[in-house]
Amino acid sequence: MIASTPFPTRFWHRLEDGRVQCDVCPRACALHEGQRGLCFVRGCEGGEIVLYTYGRSSGFCIDPIEKKPLNHFLPGTPVLSFGTAGCNLTCRFCQNWDMSKSREMDILASEASPQGIAEAAERHGCRSVAYTYNDPVIFLEYACDTAEACRALGIRNVAVTAGYISPGAREQFFSCMDAANVDLKGFTEAFYKRLCSASLAPVLETLEYLKAETSVWLELTTLLIPGENDSDAELEQMCAWVVEHLGPDVPMHFSAFHPDYKMLDVPPTPPATLRRARRIALEHGVRYAYTGNVHDSEGDSTYCHACGHLLIERDWYRLGRWGLDAQGRCEACGTPCAGVFEPRPGDWGPRSLPLAMGKA
Ligand code: SF4
Q1: Rg (CA), the chain
Q2: How far from 162 is each of 91, 179, 183, 318, CA to CA, in Å?
Q3: 264 C-alpha vs ligand 1 centroid, how far in Å?
Q4: Is 74 domain-assigned?
């Protein structure tokens, strides 16, 4: 176990009653000296909000970028992924709860400086670093310092987040990122309130901000939970909102839930539900819609929205046929495919390779 060293933070203010409010996310935790926020990794110490997980990770792994999931951002390339502990949401269906719900700092086995992470990514040929596993919003200072070190080496940065972040912190956080996969967990306030103790509106604001005011490449993921967020009506509303507010080029991933954490009594998502969601998205004008967490090569692959030509064939995380030209256009009809592409795909394949930072 590595000792907690409080790291000073920027997004907070003092309240008249003497407490200090963290302004990183809409929870707006108002804390007395010595208290921790809901995420448990930020707290009030010395009259300020500090971060307790700076420089400490729950582990590193080199993954295919498709695993984040990002299907339109440097396909086939390896991404160095890491997370810390804690989360600012309390999702009952969390699929990563051992890290995100941890209040035990002893899961933070690896100590790694921002520079050390960037150098490890470079050494291992990673094209990007992903801030993932738990929500990077809560370790914003560590993520942004690491992202800066990465950019200096030409390595890009990827956020995997629920987008539950306040405006000031949002600007700083996403200014460091090149791509984001944001969880759109459902499309009703009731879902967010009952299952995540949160609110949908700030997430939608984050998505609109990302599209309107940044150049961050954006993809969305929705974990479909049987009986909770998978009705035709909710999916239709969600997809219509995405096309109207974010445009047709934002890829949507519909992924399968597996019983976990506090939702062990709900069955896994049937593959037919994922295919139905994908069909609804396509019918509503979403150009790129995917199924995830199931074996479905058709639902995993990318097709030209203009002529239907197969652009990127996928089987789990393995790439097959490549139908884009060197400029990222359909080789059959010349229509550009939205995303960040290079003349050739990467060749990392489906491997995930855990990395011990000490030996990195
Ligand atoms: S980041 Fe953590 S401490 Fe800050 S408001 Fe959100 S939950 Fe509270």
Answers
A1: 20
A2: 11, 14, 5, 26
A3: 27
A4: yes
